[in-house]
Each structure stands twice: as C-alpha cells, then as structure tokens.
Amino acid sequence: MPQQRGCADALTYRHGAMLLDSGATRFSIWAPDARAIAVDFNDGRHHPLTAQNDGWFSATLACGAGQPYHFLVDGQQRIPDPASRSQAGAITDASVVMDARAYRWRDDSWRGRPGTRP
C-alpha cells in the first residue's frame, strides 16, 4: 500500500480550512491589515472569524468536506482562500474544504525531488 505522504503536514498546517475529527472545520487566515474577516459559504451565510492579536483570524464552524467557501474581507472583498487545498475551478473560484486524510495519492512512483532524500 502506498505511504500517505504529506498528510501530517496537511493535518497540522495553520492556514486555511482544516477539517477536524468532530466533522467541523477550523478556518484560519493571516490578514494583519484587515478589520474583519468572515467565511462566506456562497449561499448567503457569512460567519465572522475571531481576530487574534497577531494578525490571525479564525473560527471553528459546522461544515464538512466538500463545502465551497470564500473569505470576506472587511465586508467588501470576497477572496478565495490563499491557502486552499482544493478549488471548485479556477484560482478565483470558491475554495473547497478538503479531507486531507481521505486524499489518495496517485503518483506511487514519485519519491521526492532528486537530492532531497537519503
């Protein structure tokens, strides 16, 4: 069976949408110049993220894998997640919550960049 490469990094990465064991998703974005950030589920629902002192905004919301979303910056600018692990289409389209543990690598023969592995 192929080794699950990259999964540990995907599960601990602070940016973006992180599907949790509870089935909820933690959304995080670093936007030190923003006054407010919300998650826009592209259906009229906007969920504000909590501002941290270090420029981060985050919230844990009830949604699972496959949910499309944008970030709404200062109530005006709708942007895809700059740390998205999946897009609904082009890079300007909605980001999509992804279950990193369910991803199956399709490149079993790839072993990393030459010279980076012992």
How would you describe this structure in keywords?
globular; 5-stranded antiparallel sheet; 1 helix; mainly beta; disordered N terminus; 118 residues; 5% helix; Immunoglobulin-like
What's the short story on this structure?
The chain has 118 residues and is mainly β.
Q: Tell me how many strands there are.
A: 9
CATH architecture descriptor? Sandwich
Task: Give the biggest beta sheet.
Answer: 5 strands, antiparallel
- Give the overall shape, derived from the CA principal axes: globular
- Structural class of the helices, strands and pairings? mainly beta
CATH fold naming: Immunoglobulin-like
Rg over C-alpha atoms, rounded to the nearest angstrom: 16 Å
Give the CATH level 1 class. Mainly Beta
Mean pLDDT: 85
**How many helices does DSSP assign?**
1
Total individual domains:
1
Regions with pLDDT < 50 over 5+ consecutive residues?
1-11
Distance between the termini: 21 Å
Order of helices and strands: HEEEEEEEEE
Per DSSP, what share of the residues sits in E-state strands of 2 or more residues?
Answer: 25-35%
- Looking at CATH, the homologous superfamily is Immunoglobulins
Helix coverage percent = under 10%
